[in-house]
Design a protein that fits this description.
The complex is a heterodimer. Chain A is of the alpha+beta class. Chain A is built from 3 helices and 4 strands; from the N terminus they run E-H-E-H-E-E-H. Chain B contains 16 helices and 25 strands. In chain B, strand 24 and strand 25 form a beta hairpin. Chain B starts with 8 loop residues before the first strand and ends with a helix. Classes of the chains: A alpha+beta, B alpha/beta. Chains A and B meet through helix 1, helix 2, strand 4 and helix 3 of A and strand 6 and helix 5 of B.
């Protein structure tokens, strides 16, 4: 199972951009490969400590291990894909 | 905590620092503490936080970017801080912000809202008034976009200020700048620099307040200490000549010495220099001073730079001085350190701190000459000046011993003589093949004192000063004195014998004269007796003659007897 978690904080332009960028990348390049969850840390700040989130937005590839983190609004699709595919196969 | 007009100050509880800054760090504002690795930044910050909780009821948040929280807890535990307990009681929150650059890729624009959220949560959990960010610059190695970081750090500082949090931000010192990332430009209120220098293989920690907006503060470098008691800063320069003057005299423990001064001793709170060559008895005299204080029920402190405490106690026992008793009663405290153990500044700092803690009435520094070998002359002088001022300010009597290399020289390496109120010069002179200890009161400000060199005798009954023998040949000591005294005793005996002889002679003469008088008197008497006999025989003769004439006349039968007698008699 492959799982991505995107941590945002409220409805900031960066957060909104990251959410839409991630959706687009998954739909266009990785259809059906990832389960995506978006967590708003403003609603639940405890999770920031739990998952060691400092920068916003942060995309975490929780599975497969090892955990990888991408921070930023994910505006560069190619780079996002490269990083998501790292350590795989 | 707005205690004064202008900016409020939050006490750090760091000994000396709050005095230096007239209250502590600016309340509700960020302060930057910078310095190189290992100079005590984290300790400063944690002391600030823990004392805030303990002494001022201000909970705090410790944000660590480098060390793990467990490490910080165990680090400060060695200084007696129970950080884990405070965390458990929710008085302090630990927030570990760890970012491993290897597992993070940066794609596009981002901010550090996550840090803000975590900080906010921690602050709200404990109701924090104080925050520590240790060391926020680590973020620069975790994230590659410095522009974003700078903007975010500035935003963070503003955010902390807005919320009225008293914050300590630690930063590593950079080349030619206070911090590597130029954080000082974001913190405009208070910047403190910690330094750790090594000179002549001796390291000294120093603290300097680079900037403190809106308040007066000392600008010098102040030494600070990190030891088992935590972090303490020593504002050693904030001293002046405003000390109280005492009229009271104090006993030196050597009554003979006190007797050399009109009034019977040195004034309380004076500084007394005891100088002399090796083995002249400087330490012994100082120990007597200390013991005398203890005997009065006061406290005394003995800083020894050559002898270990036990050794000093043992040595003094041979003089019949039981220092161990006072030490056990905690009236006497020994601090034995080698001069090379600390730098001068640090020695000064330690001395002042220990004196402040123990509050003795007599302080002995034995010997101060130990410093002149390890430091620059001027520095030593300024250090001793500070000690003298400090002790005087507190009305503490200071005894400073000084090892002189030359017998005749009445000077000290550190040019201290003018600082001192009293100067006891101790000599150990060789005369005719023997060394004799001598003591001279070279100076005693504000009192008449003896000008004599006294012989200084140490025995198992303590120290005694013998009055010198003042003969025609000057003041004599030792065997010379004893020889002279013996000679005089002999001369005295001879003189007395002579007198007795003369007395007897006169007596004899008198007796002889008296005998002569008696003989003459006897002769006179004899002559008188002879004369009387003569007179008697003459009158008998006359009577006889008359009788004879009468008889004759009667026989002739002529004339009256009476007429005859009358005619013959005329």
């Amino acid at each position: 199972m492959r799982r991505l978690v995107l941590y945002v904080a409220g409805q900031t332009p960066k957060s909104l951009a990251a959410i839409s960028n991630l959706r687009r990348i998954c739909e266009e390049s990785l259809p059906g490969q990832y389960e995506v969850e978006v967590i708003d840390l403003k609603q639940n700040p405890r999770l920031a400590k739990e998952h060691s989130i400092v920068a916003i937005p942060t995309l975490v590839r929780e599975l497969p291990v090892p955990i990888r983190k991408i921070i930023g609004d994910l505006s560069d699709k190619e780079q996002v894909l490269v990083n998501l595919k790292l350590d795989m196969e | 905590m707005t205690s004064q007009l202008g900016i409020g100050k939050s006490p750090t509880g760091i000994q000396g620092f709050d005095e230096l800054t007239l209250g502590g760090l600016p309340t509700g504002r960020p302060s930057l503490v910078c310095g190189s690795a290992g100079c005590g930044k984290t300790l400063f910050a944690s002391t600030f936080l823990i004392n805030g909780v303990r002494d001022h009821g201000e909970p705090g948040v410790f944000v660590t970017f480098e060390e793990r929280p467990e490490d910080i807890v165990s680090n400060v535990a060695s200084l007696g801080f129970e950080l884990d307990k405070l965390i458990e009681e929710e008085k302090i929150a630990m927030e570990h912000i760890a970012v491993d650059p290897s597992e993070v890729a940066e794609i596009g624009d981002y901010d550090l809202e996550g840090l803000f959220l975590r900080l906010e949560l921690a602050i709200d959990t404990v109701g924090a008034k104080r925050v520590v960010l240790d060391t926020i610059e680590s973020l620069f190695s975790a994230f590659s976009n410095p522009a974003i970081l700078r903007a975010e750090i500035r935003r963070l500082f503003d955010w902390l200020k807005e919320r009225g949090l008293t914050t300590v931000i630690t930063a590593e010192r950079g080349d030619g700048a206070l911090t590597r990332q130029g954080l000082e430009e974001y913190v405009s209120d208070c910047v403190i620099l910690l330094d750790h220098r090594v000179e002549n293989q001796i390291s000294t920690r120093r603290l300097r307040i680079v900037k403190y907006r809106g308040t007066a503060h000392g600008t010098n470098e102040y030494p600070f200490l990190i030891d088992t008691d935590g972090f303490s800063v020593l504002p050693v320069s904030a001293l002046g000549l405003m000390h109280q003057v005492h009229e009271e005299r104090i006993a030196s423990g050597v009554p003979d010495l006190d007797a050399m001064m009109a009034g019977g001793g040195f004034f309380r709170g004076s500084s007394i220099l005891v100088s002399g060559v090796a083995g002249a008895g400087k330490s012994s005299l100082s120990a007597h001073f200390a013991a005398a204080a203890c005997a009065r029920g006061e406290r005394a402190m003995y800083f020894s730079f050559e002898e270990a405490a036990d050794q000093a106690v043992r040595n003094m026992r041979s003089l019949g001085l039981d220092l161990g008793r006072w030490r056990d009663a905690d009236l006497l405290r020994f601090m034995a350190t080698r001069p090379t153990f600390y730098s001068l500044e640090m020695h000064l700092a330690v001395i002042l701190r220990e004196v402040m803690r123990f509050e003795p009435s007599v302080v002995v520094l034995d010997p101060i000459s130990a410093f002149t070998e390890s430091g620059d002359r001027l520095e030593v002088q300024s250090m001793l000046l500070r000690i003298v001022d400090f002790l005087k300010n507190r009305g503490i009597t200071g005894i400073f011993t000084h090892l002189a290399h030359s017998q005749n020289e009445a000077t000290t390496d550190a040019g201290l003589s003018s600082l001192m109120d009293g100067w006891v010069l101790m000599l150990n002179r060789e005369v005719n093949g023997e060394f004799n200890r001598e003591l001279y009161l070279l100076k005693a400000r504000g009192m008449a004192h003896s000008n004599q060199v006294r012989e200084f005798r140490m025995s198992d009954r303590g120290i005694s000063l013998l009055p010198p023998h003042l003969g025609e040949g000057g003041a004599l000591t030792g065997t010379a004195r004893r020889a002279e005294e013996a000679r005089l005793r002999r001369a005295e005996v001879e003189r007395k014998t002579e007198l007795r002889r003369l007395q007897q002679q006169i007596e004899q003469r008198r007796r002889r004269a008296r005998a002569q008088i008696e003989a003459l008197e006897a002769e006179l008497q004899a002559e008188e007796i002879a004369l009387q006999a003569l007179v008697e025989s003459e009158s008998a003769h006359e009577r006889q003659r008359l009788a004879d004439a009468d008889a004759l006349a009667r026989s002739r039968g002529t004339g009256g007897f009476a007429d005859l007698l009358t005619n013959k008699g005329e």
